[in-house]
Amino acid sequence: MENIWRNVASPFKYVANPFRGMQSPCDTRPATHLKRSPNMQDYIFSNDFTRNIDAMIYTCGYENCSPGHSYGPVMRNGYLVHYILEGSGIYKARGKIFRLKKEDAFLICPGELIYYRADEKTPWSYTWIGMQGVKVKSYLERTSLPENLVFHYDRDDRMRLCHEKMFEADKLPKNRDLMMNSIMYEYLFLLTQRFPGRSAAFPEKKNSYVEEALSYIESSYCDPITVQDIADHLMLNRSYLHRIFKAATGMSLQGYLLDYRLRQACILLRTTDLSVRAVAHSVSFTDPLYFSRLFHQKKGMSPSRYRKTETSTPSSPPSSPPPYLPVFF
Questions:
Q1: CA-CA distances (angstroms) from residue 145 to 66, 99, 117, 187, 227?
Q2: Which of 12, 99, 153, 229 sits a CA distance of 20 to 30 A from 329?
Q3: pLDDT, tens digit, for every residue of 26-61?
Q4: For residue 257, with 0-12 CB atoms within 10 Å meaning exposed, 13-18 middle and 19 or more buried, which class applies?
Q5: Is 0.85 topped by the overall pTM?
Q6: Spatial separation of the C-alpha atoms in residues 64 and 268, rounded to whole Å
């Protein structure tokens, strides 16, 4: 799978620039002017999208912006929360302009045109957490954030500490993704407790159907199941299941089923010596040629090339990391 690599540093040492060997995209001063705390450590955050399909942190970091620095107009394809540590700026979304300052935060929703800019006199520094996955939308809908987009948090240090703990999680020698996700769920719980949504009646039944559909796919993807089979298993109308799944996850059930199978194929290609034909059959593709064509269409390379690329050399960060990466290939 493709990875995002971000060189970021602890946002809790207030220095000019947290990047090692490069300047922050927000900092326009010459690199020789940058200072760094001797206690600061950089880390590379890599996202393995085969591990956490339901919900995961796909990017996080810190920026100390120069006066007037702006980003956008642009659309993102994940949910991002920016929490302001110092300074001020504006955030534009849904035809509104929000003037924000220290301890304010703003939510970026996928598929929505947004723009934000640091103040000319008191430019902001902020941390961000980006979340993706089929359940993130439903989790955030338990809060008032998708409706209000901005909030203020000064009750305690818990929100700031969640950002800081993500930096600390990188020190783990293995299972870093599990720690990152545990911090994400703590973060989401904090948001639901502090900023609950208006409706007290959470649509548990609909989400239960979505959970069951996800569980059924996870246990049966190696069998030739179809969307109709999933609907029959849940004893639901296919069109109704499609609607509630799309509403909860942002993607079609058919698209998710295909994506899940290809993700499992990627794991088999990386971790086993099975032939491409055997891998195809293992994820319920009866025609290896069709599997290879579809794999190439989604990944930009053949299954054999993918295996060679992923197993012959260790992953390394690209020279210019993209600002975001799609959840599903």
A1: 27, 16, 20, 13, 32
A2: 229
A3: 333 333 332 333 332 333 344 544 456 678 888 888
A4: buried
A5: no
A6: 41
Main-chain phi, psi angles of 320, to 5 degrees:
-130, 90
Domains and CATH numbers, the chain: 5-194 (2.60.120.280), 204-312 (1.10.10.60)
Q: Alpha-carbon torsion 277, 280, 286, 290, what sign?
A: negative
Q: For the packed helices 158-169 and 176-194, what is the interaxial angle rounded to 10 degrees?
A: 170
Structure tokens at 242: 């499609």
Angle, CA 35 vertex, CA 34 and CA 39 arms, to 5°: 145
Are the beta carbons of 80 and 6 closer than 8 angstroms?
Answer: no
Picking from 43-57, 58-72, 78-92, which range would have the lowest pLDDT averaged per residue?
43-57
Tokens of 310: 């992923």
DSSP assigned state of 133: S
Asked whether 126 and 84 are in contact (CB, 8 A), the reply is yes
Residue 80 and residue 129 in contact, taking contact as beta carbons nearer than 8 Å: yes
A 10 A CB-CB count for 239 gives: 8
* Alpha carbons 190 and 202: distance in angstroms, whole number: 17
Instruction: Give the containing element (helix H, strand E) for 184.
Output: helix 176-194
Contact 110, 63 (CB under 8 A): no
* Dist CA 76 CA 115 (whole Å): 11
Q: How far is CA 275 from CA 11, 28, 79, 205, 294, in A?
A: 46, 51, 38, 42, 17
What is the DSSP annotation of 63-109?
A: EEPPTT-EEEEEE-SSEEEEEEEESEEEEEETTEEEEEETTEEEEEP
SS (H, E, C) 198-216: CCCCCCHHHHHHHHHHHHH
CA 166 vs. chain centroid, Å, equals 14
Between CA 2 and CA 166 the distance in angstroms is: 21
Greatest Cα pair distance in the chain: 65
Region of 83 (left: φ > 0; alpha: ψ -120 to 50; beta: rest) is beta
